[in-house]
Amino acid sequence: MATRYRDLSDISLAALVLASAVSSGCAWQSTESAPRGMWTWVGGSTTAISPSEPIPSDQPTGRCCAQSWTSAENLWVFGGAGILPGSSPDGEFLGDMWSFSTTSRTWTYYAAGGSRDPNPAGDSVTPSGRNYGITWLRTRPGQPDELWMWGGVGVRHSGDVNGGTLNDTWSFNTATHTWTKHSIPAGAVSPHGRNWANFWATHSGDVLWVQAGASVDYVPFGDMWSYSVSQNNWTRIYRHDTFPHWEGDKTNPGARSNSYTVVDGNDLVLFGGEGEMMNSSGIQGGDFQDVWRFTPENPTSGTWRYESGPAAVGCLAQYGTKGVPSKTNLPPAEHAGFVLREAFRGALWFLGGENGDEQDGMRNDLWSYNLTTKLWTWEAGDMGYNGTAVYGKLGLPAFDNTPGARYAGQAFTLGGKLWTFGGFSLDSEGGFGYMNDVWAFE
C-alpha cells in the first residue's frame, strides 16, 4: 500500500494554530482582488480516478507523490502512488514512465521505462515502484539529458505492498529511454533512505544536495549531504544526532520535511516544511513558515542563514490582497504542496498543501515569494480549506478557473507558464482522490 502523507493525529492542529498565532502576534488578513494570472485546464479527468475504472491507455492514471523532471518541452513522470483497477482506496506503488509534451499537450508511455503493474519490484535495469524519490536533471553539452533519481519510499522486493525507504540511484536517458543503475563503491558512506527529504541540484545537475527528511516511521533526520554525479560519491556536510526539533537559534533550520525549495543563483532556498520546535511550552509539532538560505562554499560545505518568517509553527496566514505583494503577507501553515523547483518570474512558487488532515485540511491557494524583494504574494485560489475545482472549458483560460484543493502533485515551468499535474485532490464533484489532470497558469 502506497503512502501519501504524514499523519499528525498526535497534534491538536486547531489548538496548535491558535496558540502559535496568539504567541507570535499573527492576524488573519484578506482582501479579494484580481489575481495576476489565469488557470487553464489543459487535459485529464475532472473527477478522481476510481478503482472500478479501466487504466487510461493514452495518459497516466491518477496519482500523487510521483518522481518528475522537465527536459526540453516535456514533463517526465515516473511512478508515484495511485489507483489501478481493483486497487485499495489508498492506492498502489506505481512504476510506469511517461512524458507530457507542453506543445502538443499529449502523453507518451515508455514501456522500457517501467511497468504498469501494481507494486512492481523492478530489476537490474528498471527501478521498483516508488513515491517521494529525489529527482534532478543532468545536462551535458552534446549529450542527451539524463533524468536522475535517488531513493524514496517503495517496493523493496517482489510481493512488498507496504514498501519501505530506498537509497538506490538511477538515471534515465531521454534519447534511448533506458535506465542505468549507479551503485556506490563498497564501504563508501551514503545517507540513510528517507521520505519527504528537501533537495536541490546545480543547474547542470552534477551536484545534488539533500537535507533532513524522515524515516518511514516518521523519525526525523537532522543531516545534510551532497552527491557528485561525476564522481559517484556522497559527502556528509553535517549531522546533528540531537536535532529532532528546532530551537530557534537562527543558524540551522533543523530537522524538517516536505519543505518548498528552489535554487537562486548559488543559494539553496528553503521555505517552511513540517517538523518540531522547542519553546517554553515544550516541543510542538506542525508546519513552519520561515525562509532559509544555504550558501555552498564548495560542493561539500556551506552555511545556512535565516531570512524571514515567524519563529513558530502554525502561525495564522495573512493573505493580504490577492495579486498584491506585501511585507505583511504570510502563506498558511501547510506541507506537501506542489513544489516548483525552478524559479518562476524571479520567485519561489507553490500550490496548495495539507495540514495533516487531507479531507479537512487541503488548500488550492497559489503563492509566490519574490527572491529579490523577499515579499509574499497570494496569486490565486481560495483562502479557506477544501476549495472545489472549477475547470471551465478545456484549453481556455479564465479568472474563475481553479484546481481543486490538493497536495503532493507535480509542478513545473515551461514556455513561460507554470504547469501542474495530478495530486490527491478535491475534484469538480466534491469527491476526494487521485487526479490525472493537467493545468497551466500564466
Biggest beta sheet summary = 5 strands, antiparallel
What is the percentage of strand-forming residues?
A: 35-45%
Assembly state here?
Answer: single chain
Helix/strand structural class = mainly beta
Distance between the termini: 36 Å
Q: Regions with pLDDT < 50 over 5+ consecutive residues? A: 5-29
Total helical segments: 1
| General shape | globular
Average pLDDT over all residues: 89
| Number of β-strand runs | 30
Element layout with pairings:
Layout: H1 13-24, E1 30-31, E2 39-43, E3 63-64, E4 67-71, E5 74-82, E6 92-101, E7 107-109, E8 130-131, E9 134-138, E10 146-154, E11 164-173, E12 178-182, E13 198-201, E14 207-211, E15 223-228, E16 233-239, E17 256-257, E18 260-264, E19 267-279, E20 282-298, E21 301-308, E22 320-321, E23 338-344, E24 347-354, E25 362-370, E26 376-380, E27 406-407, E28 410-414, E29 417-426, E30 432-441
Parallel strand pairs: 1-22
Antiparallel strand pairs: 2-30, 3-5, 4-5, 5-6, 6-7, 8-10, 9-10, 10-11, 11-12, 13-14, 14-15, 15-16, 17-19, 18-19, 19-20, 20-21, 23-24, 24-25, 25-26, 27-29, 28-29, 29-30
Can you tag this structure with a few keywords?
mainly beta, five-stranded antiparallel β-sheet, 1 helix, 30 strands, globular
Describe the structure.
Strand 19 (267-279) and strand 20 form a beta hairpin. Mean pLDDT is 89; it is low at 5-29. This protein starts with 12 loop residues before the first helix and ends with a strand. The longest helix has 12 residues, at 13-24. The protein has 442 residues and is mostly beta strands. It has one helix at residues 13-24, and strands at residues 30-31, 39-43, 63-64, 67-71, 74-82, 92-101, 107-109, 130-131, 134-138, 146-154, 164-173, 178-182, 198-201, 207-211, 223-228, 233-239, 256-257, 260-264, 267-279, 282-298, 301-308, 320-321, 338-344, 347-354, 362-370, 376-380, 406-407, 410-414, 417-426, 432-441. Helices cover 3% and strands 43% of the residues.
